[in-house]
Amino acid sequence: MIKHLSVSNYALIEKLELDFDKGITVITGETGAGKSILLGALSLVLGQRADTSVLYDNTIKCIVEGHFDISKYNLEDFFAANELDYENICIVRREILPNNRSRAFINDTPVNANLLRDFADTLIDIHSQHDTLSLLKPDYQLAILDDFSGNITLLDKYKTHFNHYIKLKNQLEEMLAAEEKSKADEDYLSFLLNELLSAQLKEEEQSEAEKELELLNNAGDIKKNLSKASYLLNQGEYNVLSMLKEVADILKDLSSYLPALEELKQRTEATYIELKDIESEIEKNERGIVFSPEQIESLNERLNLIYNLQKKHRVNTVAELLSLAEAMKQKLHLIDNLDEEIKLMKKNIQQEETVLKTLADELFEKRKKNIPVLIREILALLKELAMPSAQIEIPVNKTPGFRNNGTEDISFLFSANKGTPPARIADVASGGELSRLMLAFKSVISTKKLLPTLIFDEIDTGISGETAVKTASILNKMGKNMQIIVITHLPQIASIGNQHLVVNKTIVKSKAVTTIQRVTGEERIGTVAGMISGRQLTEASLSTARELIEKFSEN
């Protein structure tokens, strides 16, 4: 339950500190005074979106802080799962900054808006006039039935499997589309791969072939020049080797006269031997070069094959062609295995369908079993709310396939009058009847969901007189088991509060400001009397107010 609310710089609230009691808190005030502003501030700490338009002073931040007693609601696992510090009194803070950024904290730990909303769902249920329209929607009606039937855990389990089931079906569709495309591509891919494999490519062969072809294309010039070099060294009238041999002989003859020439003679002989070896190698290379038109043609054919494959696949090297071939092998392997993967996926989907059917059947049986009980309890409350002839039917229709909340449609059918067959609520219920229907449903569900706090924002729209008294009585009973906060304009409902807050709007320094005052005793009686007779209090209105307050304080 909420224990304390602190609000600063929000809408028409400059600064507010407010304590809440257990039981029922009623909030009243003139139209336009800002009753719903308090609800808006509370909604911020419950994760509602906001922007800088809510700032009272747009130069400083807005802070709304709520203190919640969560000691009786077994939320330790939620805190542990989300790495939050658990305290029996939990402090939730929301800040709206002037730059339009928002921050949220649970026990001083920063949290995102989704987590804040998840936490809020365990604390408070807010019902406003707009929410009454939700009662017209089949999904909301089904949610009411599930809340009443205690299906929340079962439904969460079903939804987990349903989401997995949808994921598997989407994956299967993707696989089938891939299979269709791959089958169309398989023949062409096999052709391309066979073309590459039949080429028997080797990574370095292109550069080697290009070098060899360049050599063969220039074989004549190379052979001619090698022959000339060999001739200059070993043939002709002035060949180098012959002259170097003659120099060595001269130095040999002279070395007997000049010993220093012995070393020169040896060096000359060594040079002669080296040049003789060079000449031999040149001659060997010259003989090894053979002009072969057949070899040139073969190399050209090989290189043209490589060049054409590179151009076709838009690559520049044989290594890239080899890498492409490997990738094609893998793609073809995947295509070959896709059939098996599709079979496995279909098997997984069938298994998930079996689980879903079991869970859906269990949901169906629990819903069907609890429908008569729900109708009986709702009709009993409607009788208290001055609708003794009301009729409710909840037909259940099985639907083909699975949906996110089961395998059946339900529709709440309603009639307020005897002899009139029930029809869709949207078609037959007036505004006042809708309000009473929603109150009845909220009342029976509140005993099942065991939320700490339930807030009603003008649940009393369209009702008055004795019906208002009955509505107050039902709210009073609900307040015995949980914290109820009611924003109301009816004196009958204002009389049930364990705490009565009055919202006023005043002008401070030419600016409207909302304030909230707690009224007790005679001041409270006067406030309720004012709701009966207006600003001019009468003995009759004061007496009626006193009787109403005493009546509900005794219950």
- Mean pLDDT score, rounded? 86
- Beta-strand percent range: 15-25%
Radius of gyration: 47 Å
Strand order of the main beta sheet, please? 2-1-4-5-6-7
The CATH topology of the domain at 1-123 and 451-519 is what? Rossmann fold
In CATH, the architecture of the domain at 1-123 and 451-519 is 3-Layer(aba) Sandwich
Number of strands: 17
The count of helical stretches stands at 18
- Major beta sheet summary: 6 strands, antiparallel
CATH class descriptor of the domain at 1-123 and 451-519: Alpha Beta
Shape: elongated
The level of helicity is 55-70%
CATH homologous superfamily grouping of the domain at 1-123 and 451-519: P-loop containing nucleotide triphosphate hydrolases
Parts with pLDDT < 50 across at least 5 consecutive residues = none
Structural class: alpha+beta
Q: Give the N-terminus to C-terminus distance in angstroms.
A: 22 Å
Topology:
Blueprint: E1 2-10, E2 13-19, E3 24-29, H1 35-45, E4 62-69, H2 76-81, E5 89-96, E6 102-106, E7 109-111, H3 113-121, E8 124-127, H4 129-132, H5 138-149, H6 152-198, H7 205-217, H8 219-234, H9 240-254, H10 261-288, H11 293-313, H12 318-384, E9 391-393, E10 396-403, E11 406-410, E12 413-415, E13 423-424, H13 425-428, H14 431-449, E14 453-457, H15 465-478, E15 483-487, H16 491-494, E16 499-508, E17 511-519, H17 521-533, H18 539-554
